[in-house]
Amino acid sequence: MFASMRVPHTLVLLFLIMAIAWVATLALPQGRFARMTPEGASHAMVVPGSYERLEERVRLSPTVLLTSVPRAMADAREIIFFVLLVGGAIGVLRATGVIDAALGALLRRLEKRPFWLIAGGVTAFAAASSAIGVAEEYIPLMVILMSLCVAMRLDTVTAVAIVVVGYGIGYGVAALNPFTVQVAQNVAGLQPVSGWEFRLALFLPFVAIGVHHVWSYARRVALDPSRSLLAGIEARMPDPPAPVPLDGRRWLVLIIALAAFALMVWGITAKGWYLVELSALFVGLALIAGLAGGLGADRTARHFTEGAAELAGTALLIGFARAIALILEEGQVLDTIVHGLAQPLSALGSYGAAVGMLLIQTVINFFIPSGSGQAYATMPIMAPLADVVGVERQVAVLAFQFGDGFANMIVPTNVVLMSILGIAGIPFDRWLRFVAPLMLKLLIASALALIVAIAIGYR
Known about the structure:
- This protein is mainly alpha-helical.
- The protein is built from 19 helices and 4 strands.
- It has one domain.
- α1 packs parallel to α13 and α15 packs antiparallel against α16.
């Protein structure tokens, strides 16, 4: 069923949602909440119970579907430029070979030790995704993993699981990820990377859940190959790529990158750095890493441009997603939607409301698989909704992370997932049988984490 399923491009889906938003401005009651900025807060908060309908309707022309896009991109310019500059820096790091070399060296060191291959691989992929939002960069490593797993009497589902489970959990509990955490916090009016300590504390427990699930399956297959989910399907084994050595230059680049991320955490926590300073840090990282990696000035500039260009689509998604909120705001129905969602969620109490947000974000990920796009499409609603139902905005961002990150492992609209399954020759229905139980475990763990976050006053 999923093999023949054709899902529209995310930009098409976002434009359709924009059209629905415009229709909503005509059909829904228009109203607004009162807002106030608490002492010491950096953003205005909705005053619960203050919603009132507007007597005079605002009518938007259909041309707003076109004019809202450039205005929305101008409104989101800081985060768009930030994403492009981070993409440029990652493009330079990738060109030095440090990402492939470091992960490839780790995987080869774990060769012939199946448990440590699974535990080390899932942890490494999760850490890279948590820190810098790595995703597509894992695809070339699939062939290496497939070869290692087959040599250890494991199947290629295990190889795919090491990457995808690590990637999904890394995004779900990301501490620093510039494409999800920092975008969502920016929209919610929170300091970038704030609350990273709690998310970092969640990292190992969630990784342990993923490792246990993958290892349990791998051990069953090693003992009895007939229990493989690929039983009866011809194995696909592409030729492995040439190994990338972790030489002296790449060690230097790796140290520079780690130092840059340490500097980022220090700057945010000690100096209050925001998007301008963080963008400058990634520009500096690209320049220093490119020269240290032997790329030279011209090649560094070229790979920086290519890396930024690869995220041009993400920048457009951010603009179109922001346009949705802009239409709802100007049509005076954004608060009406928040008010409507708040009624059932408020009846559940703050704990139930947070879990409800998690489920909503998980479902939305099917339609908007881009983390940045989803943040800009949903957080303008979820942030004020959190105010109304008595949940901290930081908890709403955490619910977004969980819903976006973990759903990446299961939704067929995720390009990275479907590319990896295609390389390994694994039908989606077989993968679904593997990952669905893990999704249930992670959603239960996420709900518990949200409850704990509220209980400890996470903000």
